User: Fold Sterile alpha motif domain containing 1a from Acanthochromis polyacanthus.
Amino acid sequence: MSESKYREWILDTIDSLRSRKARPDLERICRMVRRRHGSEPDRTCAELEKLIQEQTVLKVNYKGSISYRNAAKVQRRSRKKDDVSLTTAARRSAVEEASHSDLSNGDSAFGAIDQDEEDLEADTSMAMDTDSNADEEGADESRDGQDRPSPSRTHEDAAVHCAPVRAASAPCSPSGARPGPGAGPGCSPGSGLDCASLQKAGERPNSLPSSSPRALAHNDWAYDPAPCPAERQHPGMQRDKVATKPAVHSESTSLCALNNVKKEDGGKAEDRSLSSDQLVPDYAARLQDETKSLSDGRSQTLSSPSDNCTFKKIDISSFTATEDNLLNGGKGDEVSVKKETVSQNLLQWTVADVASYFSAAGFPEQAVAFRTQEIDGKSLLLMQRSDVLTGLSIRLGPALKIYERHVKVLQRTHFLEYEDL
DNA sequence: TTGTGCGCACGAG
DNA sequence: CTCGTGCGCACAA
Assistant:
């Protein structure tokens, strides 16, 4: 309930700020929500993060600062969809492209990709964008920011995420300025978010040259992908994870590492793809990366021991599978491979998981509808064609795609699994 | 003080 | 050129 309410509030706020020609940054959003609805900034931030995960809200790095966009309204002229389309974008094309492109267009937003120049400015900010994690951290910031609204807070997002990093890899010189304000008090240690950042922080230094702005970007990337989603996904895990996270670290880290490595190695090729997609939801991004990198034994690799990790990985694998199908025109086989994981997880999927899934699959707007209708994994299994086409009040086109490519496939794989069992 | 309106410059396409 | 964005300023409550 509250979630949908917050979604509304936040989206309204973003729209309002935009119409007012004010930058929809964390600080302003939190403030306005508080003013209008009396919601605490912390909560607002938390909700905002969720929305970002769902891609209902897009976090963008624009002109060196972080902005938030109403994904449903972002429909700019698609930039280089073509390029993107090659990768994942293709499928999302219809609905998401807009959003993605937006982000990417956002200009610097995903600069991370473009790193070349943006890095300078972006380093901090960039990082923010890219990393969905940033969002989480952003939350941290937000908290801070909320507590003490400072003009520079905006940057802090970046800072937030950087904060830890900086500690380790100090260098964020360009951003350095920003960090100062945000860094100190900003991060409220102890919060779940922090954990994420901490992990990242720890990881980054090792894998990347901390000094270069790029490093930051990479790091960000690194993290977002694996850790965040998993964490977020877990029901109720968000802040409680603290304890859990540690365990996860190892694996998530590994995943991150993989991503990083590839990115670095793959270098430009991937960057490009990413760039176009940067906006893409974390998942999507990861998926791509993973798809590429793990193309061989995704599920296997993914399905590893640690609980959290397993969960996360599974999700990813399932996503990947879906994506593959879409991209390739649907290869039943691949799906079958992942069936197990999918089916198992499906029952455990929360409303947020479902929404995240569809967001990642290229249907951010429709994901909102799933969330609104409180469709969790079990509900998803019970959905019929008519439910998807008419019960969610979503447009027919996307609805058909969602049902045929996702709902149906998930149900089929799930039930097939059960038959086997 | 805080919220709002908007002219204007910027950058992308 | 158009369009999205948001800074910076003036104004209102």
User: Anything to note?
Assistant: Residues 21 and 137 of chain A are 26 Å apart (CA to CA).
